[in-house]
Write a structure and sequence with these properties.
Elements (H helix, E strand, L loop, with lengths): L4 H7 L10 H10 L8 E8 L11 E5 L10 E4 L3 H9 L3 E3 L4 H5 L8 E4 L4 H4 L3 H4 L17 H10 L1 E5 L5 E8 L4 H17 L10 E8 L5 E3 L6
Helix pairs in contact: 2-8, 3-7
Length: 230
């Protein structure tokens, strides 16, 4: 992949093979985020887990103290009083069975997170082939299958993010925007890492956090020392 001059100039600021302390890495990721838009700051955590084993499948959610800087659209599947509760909490879309053809046949996917009450999972399950591959299927571990839809919606709007292993056993999550202060990014990063560190599967032998890198949308990856999270 051919890189532009701006990227290459920024990459020179990052010492190859160096493991940076958190504060230094955050400072550097802001310095190298020089695109003409407010870049997203992401964390990529390569784990020693084997996601093929159910007990090593890491998945959960955490509310970042300063949010992600992104407006998250929430769809809630519920019925009766829970629909009103979801709407009052700030859900962007609420409904039930009538939404199935809109999503399944019309390809409507104008939302970022799906929340469902347990009694609606039979309905939502019919959307598995559409929502599953996009990581949008509600899940109890992520707090998106719940009767407390008010809390779920408010947490998501406040900056709750989900983390999970991908097929390569890597966790990819946003922790803010380049316009955030170093303190805000550090607090979000440390909150995320604290939760991920605690999620280490008891059955895992060997290294859990193999590499942790922080990067902006268009910038180079900066590796962070993992010993502080052990």
């Amino acid at each position: 992949m051919k890189r532009g001059k701006k990227y290459l100039d920024n990459a020179k600021k990052v010492e190859r093979g160096k493991l940076y302390e958190t504060a230094e890495a955050i400072k550097l990721v802001k310095e190298t985020a020089v695109a003409g838009f407010d870049e997203t700051i992401e964390v990529h955590i390569r784990t020693g887990c084997d996601g093929r084993h159910a007990e090593q499948q890491i998945r959960g959610a955490v509310v970042l103290p300063h949010g992600t800087g992104k407006t998250t659209k929430v769809l809630v599947f519920a019925k009766d009083a829970k629909l009103d509760e979801a709407q009052a909490a700030g859900a962007d879309f609420v409904g039930g069975e009538e939404l199935i053809p809109k999503i399944q046949n019309d390809g409507w996917l104008d939302f970022d997170v799906v929340v469902a009450t347990p009694d609606m999972m039979g309905v939502v399950g019919r959307l598995g082939r559409v929502l599953g591959p996009k990581g949008l299927m509600p899940n109890p571990k992520a707090g998106t299958v719940t009767m407390d839809v008010e809390k779920a919606v408010k947490d998501i709007k406040a900056g709750k993010i989900e983390y999970r292993l991908d097929k390569s056993n890597i966790i990819h999550v946003p922790i803010g925007k380049a316009s955030f202060s170093e303190e805000q990014l550090s607090e979000n990063f440390n909150t995320l890492m604290g939760v991920v560190a605690k999620a280490r599967p008891s059955s895992l032998k060997g290294t859990y956090l193999k590499t942790v890198a922080i990067t902006s949308t268009m910038g180079p990856g900066i590796k962070v020392a993992t010993n502080q999270f052990a």
